[in-house]
Amino acid sequence: MTASGQPISQYDTSMPRVVSGAVLLVVALLVMLSIDVSWVAETFGFQKRVDARVPTFFIRMVFLIAVLAGAFISFTSLSYYKRNRVMLAPWLFLSIGLAFFLIYVIIPIFQSISYSFTKWNGLYDVTGTWTGEWVGFYNYRLLLEDPNFYTSLANNLLWLILFMLAIPIGLGIALFLNQTVTGIRIYKSMFFFPFVISQVVVGLIFSWAYNPEFGLLSEIWGWFFCEQKLNIVGNLTTSCSIDPPSILGEAKYATYGIIAAGLWPQIAYCMILYLTGLNNVSPDQVEAGRLDGAKGWKMLRHVILPQLRPATFIAIVVTVIGALRSFDMIATMTQGGPFGSTNVLAYYMFDQAVGEGVGRYGYGSSIATVLFFIMLIYISYFLWRMYQDEKTEH
Predict the structure, then answer these.
(1) What is the separation of C-alpha 141 from the centre of its chain, rounded to a whole number of angstroms?
(2) Strand runs labelled E in 51-191
(3) Among 83, 101, 135, where does a domain finish?
(4) In this structure, are residues 130 and 146 in contact, taking their beta carbons and an 8 Å threshold?
(5) Distance from the CA of 63 to the CA of which of 89, 141, 202, 291 falls in 20 to 30 A?
(6) Strands 236-240 and 226-230: what pairing?
């Protein structure tokens, strides 16, 4: 009860607690911002400022945690929060993740777009002043005249088309593995194995396999087209009627070889999605289909696949994004060669900014901007389709 005899609401908040929380926030934020390397070096007796950088970082982190704790206490003490706890609690948990996403993803996207209108070598002068120059749409005009850009764009389109093979192949493997037989877990582990391997490791494995001198492809080729003979000195040599192909050394094969390497883990990922979806297939509908005489392809088309639509949707979205942002395979296996024939937009952007074309940050940013808008169109379309499907279902 209050002094006037009125009952205290369950949502009333103690004002001193709110004020103390706000004071804690302000003080912690000010202290965190005031800490610099020189202050820490003098306080703790470091001889060099460089040695004081790591302690400074940890001190700032401590005060940052204090700020977050103070913000959490203050916000959850408000009567507004208590009245709307169910609605606000999820956003409270998401706030930190959203803040990092804003800082490390959204802001850099707009920075990259702004850099695409400049000519900049990526460096600052001795005073810390930015050395770039505003050039408007000059970089985009260069793109329209750059044959390497069109090669990279065409390769991205080829990646996009061939990468879609991962979806039906993954579905087929999932259907094969979705049965209860002896040793099925071992088979699932074997098919799942490529997914847990790093893309760089996959690229190295296939680079060795494609090697025309000692690779796996060379060994298999030798079974059909090569034979061992004794030369005039009596040494055993290998003679081939047709030399084994150099997959990564020839422009007409290299891109297909890299895509094949990229498909290996992508198929495993689609298989996992479909295995998860098959576990949620309604057995009642399957049994009803059998009673109606559906089996084989008819069962798959009319009963199974409609229930796998969510898994198919995710598989398509992830596969499209993976094809458009392909980078690590090219960097590991060919570095864009031979003669730039395997470049894609992501690798060509990197190559122009910090690779062969060092110092063309503005031009590299223009390539990144084009790639971003291509991905944005695809992602927006799929999100719109998902929204339409949700409306139809409800």
Answers:
(1) 29
(2) 118-119, 133-134
(3) 83
(4) no
(5) 89
(6) antiparallel
- At 332, the amino acid letter reads T
3-state percent helix, strand, coil for the chain, nearest multiple of 5: 70, 5, 25
Q: How far apart are CA 304 and CA 282, in angstroms?
A: 9
Least Cα distance to 177 among 158, 196, 191 occurs for: 191
**Same structural domain, 159 and 304:** yes
Tell whether 188 is covered by a domain: yes
User: pTM for the whole thing?
Assistant: 0.78
- Locate 159 and state its tokens: 């990646």
3-state secondary structure of 226: strand
Tell me phi and psi for residue 9, to 5 degrees. -70, 150
Q: Using CB atoms within 10 Å of the CB of residue 393, give its burial: 0 to 12 exposed, 13 to 18 middle, 19+ buried.
A: exposed
Q: 181: burial class by Cβ within 10 Å (0-12, 13-18, 19+)? A: exposed
What DSSP character marks residue 250? S
- Positive or negative, the CA dihedral 87, 88, 89, 94 is positive
Pairing of strands 226-230, 118-119: unpaired
Alpha carbon separation from 379 to 246, 306, 325, 336, 376 (Å, rounded): 37, 22, 13, 26, 5
> For the chain, what is the domain count?
2
Does residue 266 sit within a domain? Answer: yes
Residue 342 maps to which CATH number?
Answer: 1.10.3720.10
Domain with 162, as residue range(s), is 146-218+249-359
What is the rounded radius of gyration, in angstroms, for the C-alpha atoms of the chain?
30
E strands in 107-264? 118-119, 133-134, 226-230, 236-240
Alpha helices in 236-344 (DSSP H): 251-279, 283-291, 297-299, 305-307, 309-324, 328-333
